[in-house]
Design goal:
By secondary structure, this protein is α+β, with helices and mostly antiparallel strands. The chain is built from six helices and eight strands, in the order αααβαββββββααβ.
Length: 254
């Protein structure tokens, strides 16, 4: 029998969706506050290092990527113009031919021209047996691993090195930022390929020395390392800027 004093309440169908919405809104506010707070702290740190008029603006990764792509495009165009001028110069007198030869050798040494030749290719891969390792750090390729491999290649006589098809030069940088590795500001991820041009036997022996960096990685998981000898491979030119602001040639000694 129906109770006449019973007040029938509508079902609370709005509780779940509203709760979920509030959680999402709360997460977005928390994220926005975190980003704003981090940006403010970075600006505060920069403010201690620079005068007010010299304070650089904090830019996003997207802006940095766009500016980097624009600069690389401009550098590629300028290098093409330089190569065309050098070709015209080579058609002139014997003196200009000698100057042009010196310019090309200098560019080759500095990594400003494409190169090809024999060498080795090293592929470093994050371990697929992470759950069997003491920690995920041990099975992950880090910037230190790449830097050590590159150093061993140069020590073994490498004449040109590229990491993930990015040619290394005197001012190149390799560093970890969070879970990713940056090479000259560009993100790369496993598997990472390191190409080197030089005497293949010397390079192969140099990176496979006992207790070397590849030996240490193989102890964690042999499948993280692969080394191939190649008869001929192509490396691109370094794509960074070559301008100098502080490093200048000293005056001649008297």
């Amino acid at each position: 029998m129906l109770n006449p004093f019973h007040i029938r309440k509508p079902p609370n169908n709005w509780v779940v969706p509203v709760s979920v919405l509030m959680l999402v809104v709360g997460f977005l506010f928390s994220t926005a506050w975190s980003v704003t707070d981090r940006s403010a702290r970075i600006q505060e740190q920069l403010g201690r290092l620079f005068a007010p008029g010299e304070l650089p603006a904090v830019v996003t990764d997207q802006e940095l990527g766009r500016k980097l792509a624009e600069q690389k495009s401009e550098i590629t165009k300028l290098r093409g113009d330089l190569s065309a001028l050098q070709s015209k110069l080579a058609e002139g007198s014997s003196a200009s031919k000698e100057i042009n030869k010196t310019l090309k050798e200098t560019s080759l040494f500095a990594g400003l021209t494409e190169v090809e030749g024999p060498g080795i290719t090293i592929t470093l891969t994050d371990s697929k047996k992470q759950d069997q390792l003491p920690s995920s750090e041990a099975g992950t390729i880090h910037d230190n691993d790449i830097i050590k491999v590159v150093n061993e290649l140069y020590a073994a006589g490498a004449e040109a090195v590229a990491v993930d098809n990015r040619r290394l030069a005197a001012t190149s940088s390799v560093r970890c930022v969070g879970p990713t590795v940056l090479v000259d500001g560009e993100r790369i991820a496993s598997p990472i390929t390191i190409k080197a041009i030089g005497n293949p036997k010397d390079l192969y022996g140099g990176v496979n020395i006992p207790r070397g960096v590849l030996d240490e990685i193989r102890l964690v998981d042999p499948n993280m390392v692969k080394v191939d000898i190649v008869e001929k491979q192509h490396l691109p030119a370094w794509s960074g800027a070559t301008t100098r602001k502080y490093a200048k040639e000293p005056p001649p000694k008297t």
